[in-house]
Amino acid sequence: MQAQKVILIEDRGFHRAYFEEMLRSAERYTLVDRKDRMAEMLDSDQSIKADLILMEAADQAGITNFAAAKIFREKYPHTRMIVIAATAEYTYPERARKCGADSFWYADDTKESLLSVMDRTMKGESVWPEERMQVQVGAACSDQFTEKELQVLQEVVNGCSNKEIGERLNLSYYTIRDYMESLLGKTKLKSRTELAVAAVLSGLVL
Question: What DSSP string describes 89-138?
């Protein structure tokens, strides 16, 4: 059987070397190209001939590949795409769905290998984790946060005041204050600065 052609989108040297070695050891796949970012593929004048795209969600600078991936999906609807996440950033799974990814895999997944996800995806399955990657933020595990608390946490990391967060999320100042108290209570952290630092270091919010 002819090997499936794979393009790798990954700019981290260690991760790229790992994925390349994995593909070399799997006779059913062959690596035909590699790029640092998905946008580089779109900039190419050559037609893309691949069966599968393995795409890291974001590069080392934290710039995501989702917008370019959505354009790619519209141009190449039959090429399978798997998004790989090296962090627990909470928005990645939903953003991967919206850009048209077929499957999603956390790089630290101990339950299923990437090769298994690739095989299932090429057979027509859509493979997604049953739950988000869990990380520790202060004294709290990330699954203790509600969706709205995660949105507030994102804005705290962005440096917004309670008033600004309320305006962005269309919530009252007092509601945001309550969410902040809940976040600090769950994490046992003393300030919004400590909260923001802990969230970024955990990879939950970037």
Answer: -TTHHHHHHHTT-SEEEETT-SSS-HHHHHHHHHTT-----SSPPP-EET
